[in-house]
Amino acid sequence: MLPPHRDRLQAHHGRAPTSLVRPTGIDWDQVDPALDPMKGGRIRQGSLRGERKRAQVEAIATIVSKLLRCPDFCTSGGSGTTIIDAGSGAGNLAIPLAGLLRREGISNFDVLAVDVNEVALQRLEERASDIFSRGAVRTLFADLARPSEILQQMPGGRSCIVVSLHACGAASDYAMELAHISGSPFIICPCCTAKSLVRRRQGGQGPAQRDDVQNNAMTDISASFQRSGATDDIRYPRSDWLCGIIPPDMEDNYEVLAKVADVGLGPQTPSEQREHQRRAKIIVELDRLASSAENFGYYTRLVRIKDQGKVAYGKGEILLGAKEGSSSACVLRNLPVIVGRAAGNTS
After folding, report:
1. Is 33 a member of any domain?
2. Do the domain assignments include residue 325?
3. Does 205 reside within a domain?
């Protein structure tokens, strides 16, 4: 059973999503090492993880660049754009994204890096202060589960784009909600789907509601299981489409799906297991996109980053969305892609 709006969701009857063309114009050897997610992010040189991080940053930067040049964001008289990096960590997306956009001559934007890990944000601030003028990259110590409070930190009149790279579990859902509330496009590369199954708890006293999350509890929220866990108002499956296939009284089936989607892949992984993981991951991400289309009128699209290595990579999907009928939606619809097998897939 497929979503009724299959043209929006890019559902492929279980095949791989379309593969985003990795940009070829970035020679990382010619880029300031501080902007390189491998060198500046202290990832082991020449490692597969470092190469993947470069590919992820390139892909997101390419899409953001196209969005910033479309009428939604480049209309004369505008007050500029804030790119919110939801779950920024130490800045392996925020910093190179800001630098690469400026290398292209785009300047009417700033980056707001949001995270609940103060140590990571301090590291990000140190890195950014050595590269950018004051205000180009800002940090915000905040919980993604409180999107309204995050948006209150935005200067008035500025447009917004939400990006996120490997915000674990429900944090990717919060990043999407941040976009929905602000009516902004989103570019989200999720990970760790099984972590969203863990419900947030405060001090072991039971489920936490969003209104219960106060600043004095931030230390608890910064714990991995807290920042990636879902509050009680986040339901899974996310969409009516998948709920029609997996009813609420069969939650165990979604739990199995999310856990299979989260299986780590390596050279030793049997090809059949890789295929199960790939299909489960696509269903989980299509569920998120279906919810965005159903509830918020978004045009959505699922793509996979090209050049993720010879072995299938379980965290290479990018979720794209923008208000249906907007020029941003047109940009996402017309992104150059290679239709067919994404790099590293085994089907």
Report:
1. yes
2. yes
3. no
- For residue 90, what are the domain limits? 6-190+236-338
* Cα–Cα dist 300/325, whole Å: 12
Report the CATH number at residue 134.
Answer: 3.40.50.150
- Give the number of other Cβ atoms within 10 Å of residue 156's Cβ: 5
The stretches of the chain forming alpha helices (DSSP H) are: 6-9, 48-68, 71-74, 94-103, 118-129, 147-151, 170-182, 218-221, 224-227, 240-243, 251-261, 271-296, 327-333
- In angstroms, the CA 90 to CA 291 distance is 30
User: What is the CB neighbour count within 10 angstroms for residue 76?
Assistant: 4
Q: How many domains does the chain have?
A: 1
Neighbours of 218 (CB within 10 A): 17
Q: pTM here?
A: 0.85
Nearest one of 159, 150, 141 to 217, comparing CA atoms: 141
The pLDDT value given to residue 338: 61
Give the 3-state secondary structure of residue 33. Answer: helix
- pLDDT one-digit tens code per residue, 45-76: 767 777 888 888 988 999 999 999 999 998 65
- What is the full DSSP assignment across 168-199? ETHHHHHHHHHHHHHT--EEEEEE-GGGGGSB
Would 119 be classed as within a structural domain? yes
